[in-house]
Amino acid sequence: MLDLISIVIALLVAVTVHEAAHAAAAYYLGDPTAKMAGRMTLNPIKHLDPLGTLMIVIARFGWGKPVPVNAYNLKNPRRDEALISLAGPLSNLLLAACLALPVKYFLFSYETGFLGILAYVMTVTIYLNVALMVFNLIPIPPLDGSKVLFAFLPIAWEDKLRRFEKNGFILLFGIIILSRVLGVPIFAYIVGPLVDLVLSVIFLTS
């Protein structure tokens, strides 16, 4: 039960920070769309996606409601969309690094009681924030990594790849479900080594 509760808390925190960072970056770069929609907030209710929330319970991985961005409000749409997309994963990395400090220097010695539970929940939160960061940087539409990739591609290629944004979500959802059915952690094989690398760097430098 503690595992499930920790994962739910960790993912809600990670997704909320991630989506709020997208909204804040968009507002800073000139697009108030997300702010006017009430998305520039750390209230998780504003960022919850029904299916993504359900997947947190079923697959122990989920996602938030996409932050609306109006490219016509951006001075340099290709560059700014990439920066807005990067803001989400970078916020997860920053949060993980901040949480690593108390875990490493204060809570690491506690295994029982309230502080032991707190240490466990924070450790899970660190791990899932890093996992969410790495996962979102995969350059498959509609993940954040695809929008970063678009900024470096010729416009003709970008137009073709953008057609796969909606289908890309179906592909990702299908892979997640297939992984659970087959018991084969497909994404774990892809992002696992990078997650371990980032975690080792965070705890070495914190």
**Average pLDDT number:** 86
Percent range for helical residues?
Answer: over 70%
Number of domains: 1
Task: Report the total helices.
Answer: 9
Estimated share of beta-strand residues: under 5%
Quaternary:
single chain
**Which segments are poorly predicted (pLDDT under 50) over 5 or more consecutive residues?**
none
Q: Give the structural class.
A: mainly alpha
Overall geometric form? globular
Number of strands: 0
Please compute the radius of gyration using only Cα atoms.
17 Å
Tell me about the biggest sheet?
none
Distance between the termini: 30 Å
Q: Give the H and E element order.
A: HHHHHHHHH
Descriptive keywords:
mainly alpha; 206 residues
Can you give a write-up of this model?
By secondary structure, the chain is mostly helical. The chain has one domain. The protein is built from 9 helices and no strands. The longest helix is centred in the middle third of the chain and has 29 residues, at 77-105. It is globular and about 55 Å long. The chain starts with a helix and ends with a helix.
Secondary-structure blueprint of this entry?
Layout: H1 2-28, H2 33-36, H3 50-58, H4 77-105, H5 113-136, H6 144-150, H7 155-162, H8 165-182, H9 186-205
Helix pairs in contact: 1-4, 1-5, 4-5, 4-6, 5-9
Task: Describe what is shown at a glance.
With about 210 residues, the chain is mainly alpha-helical. The protein has helices at about 1-30, 35, 50-60, 75-105, 115-135, 145-150, 155-160, 165-180, 185-205.
